Amino acid sequence: MRMNVSAQPGEVDLRPLSARSVVLSLLLGTHPPELPVRELVRAVEPFGVGGSTLRAALSRMAAAGDLRRTDTGYRLSDRLLARQRRQDDAVRPATRAWDGDWEMVVITASGRGPAERAELRARLTALRLAELREGVWLRPANLARALPDDLCEVAQHYTARPGLPERRLAAALWPLDAWAATARALLAHIGRAPGPADRFTAYAAVVRHLLADPVLPPRLLPEGWPGADLRAAYADYRREVAEAARA
Questions:
Q1: Domains delineated in the chain
Q2: Is the full-model pTM beyond 0.85?
């Protein structure tokens, strides 16, 4: 299975941001993930979202379980805190020295319906594993993370040393050139984004793209891999937003 990238190679995936998506993007990038209503009102103004529209969106999001009302404003629900952790990991992935071992997850459960299979595939992809063939997922063992305990109910986990040349295997599992081309297009777009709303929309696309980075050991990556540059650009932007909020 090949990883998804944010757009066609070299293109930028800029999705229109609704009031809901702006609020979620703001809170997902805020630590702790809570903001007063007055700050949310100010933050969505560059997107043409009025106060009444924002308050209606906040009410709907609270009713849907996306947000929790607090004494001072709104914060992410527990369900979305897991999404924030995935986003934080995409921006600052925890890695360890790689000795050549690969993680291999073999699906052992049977009789699952389409929805269950799709959910499991999404979980494995979020863990930055890639599907070699049906039911066999792997990646270099360079991530400083443990697999979820409940995964053992449906799969077996192994350490392996594939017989194929490692760079060829990585290139077969992930479309690395396509990911890099889109990352470079995002960096170029960020550099010429004209205003706050355009930059915010561009950096939302950056986060989506970073979630699809396989975070491979350097020796498996093509020359000039732009992952570090894209992460640094987003980290600078998040510091800029945080400083503006404090001011």
A1: 19-86 (1.10.10.10), 102-160 (3.30.70.2650), 174-246 (1.20.58.1460)
A2: no
